[in-house]
Design a protein that fits this description.
9 helices, 14-stranded mixed beta sheet, Alpha-Beta Plaits, alpha+beta, Methan_mark_16, 15% helix
Amino acid sequence: MNGAFDNTETSRTIPEIQDKIDAGDAIVLTATEISARIRAGEDIKLEDVDVVTTATRGIMSGTYAVLSFKVSEPDSFVKASEVLLNGVPAVVGPCPNERLGILDLIVLGTAHSKFDPNYGGGHLFREMVEGKNIKVDVTTSEGDHFSVETRLSEIPYAKLNATRHSFKNYRAFVNPGKESIKTIFHALPFEGEFKEMTFCGCGELNPIENDPKLETIGIGTRVLLNGADGFVTGAGTRSAPDNPNLTGFADMHDMTPEYMGGFVTSAGPEIINTWAVPIPILHGGMLENILKLDKEIPLKLVDLAGRIPLCEITYGDVWDNVDLNIKYEPEKCLNCKDCLVIEACPMGAVSRGENGAIHNLKFCFNCGLCISRCRGEAFSANLGSVRCSTGGCLRDIKVTLRQSDRARAIIAAEELKEKILTGRFRLNEPVEKISWRK
């Protein structure tokens, strides 16, 4: 491992670190900054850093919103039996709110619109945070129908909840079979015969990669979820000590739309979220994981169909020496009548203009799919390739799509650092350690 760590008995507490921040004496570094120092050959000791800000941005299916708002005057209807928000179905309840004209709703991030196959809960939540009007279609228990429009500023209760977010790391996928497969792990049918690879995870930036023993991340830890102050509530679904993930929540009113969104896969819309988590360095032993680089973090390459492990690579294989941002050169656009990029872009970040394609950076996820689809090579980035020995063959497999946006995760970690240093985000001790049931 690069760098060195101090494993002495010296230790400090989170309140002591916050006191140093308040006094202007704390050293706060992003995970990217500390990794750059390690690559430059520096030895990092406990006195060199007090807090590391980490982040991850990617597809996180385990997401739902809880909303409560008024849609009519009292006694206009008994209760709602079905509700659509921009065509996305909501679960009505748990409170029936009989005759109050108020809806309590649960909306899944992976719910799909009844009218638009490329629109889902992730798109809805981002549009709400952007302040756009939302159409609410209500079917009452009496069989009546009515529609109203609302917006997030008129919804007093709007919490986004995570059931399985911020994974320690994830996986890389290939399709060894001959037939292409529709899957949530690709925006197009996944080509077979090892022709391409997709992957998830931000490697050395990932929060739990930097605190795998969950020494500072616990129940009640304050985090930024899509830019809003939120809290960890425990371990997520299918979480385990060797592969943990987190649950949490935050208020949608305070979120940043660029950290959110819908991502259209070949199996339907998915949802994107962004976490930024501070890791206070309590003792020298914690530096062992803080100092790990991408090339030291394992990434399993698996068969898409059965999740069968094929070989083990590292996050260095997919993040080292690649371009994090997609470059668009409008002068190279051929203005094709049937633009394959517009058809394929899972974020809808590319649209048609008078003189060619328009690339909307606010929506771009830097997934890289546009590169393999553009006939004029107007979109470019080095996504890299992976060498893997499987099935008795040594294969070079090109990365064609990334389902984590490291460029935006870096920005989220920088934002958290700035908020800590200016006092707008305060560190807090967890209420309780996270544990797993056997």
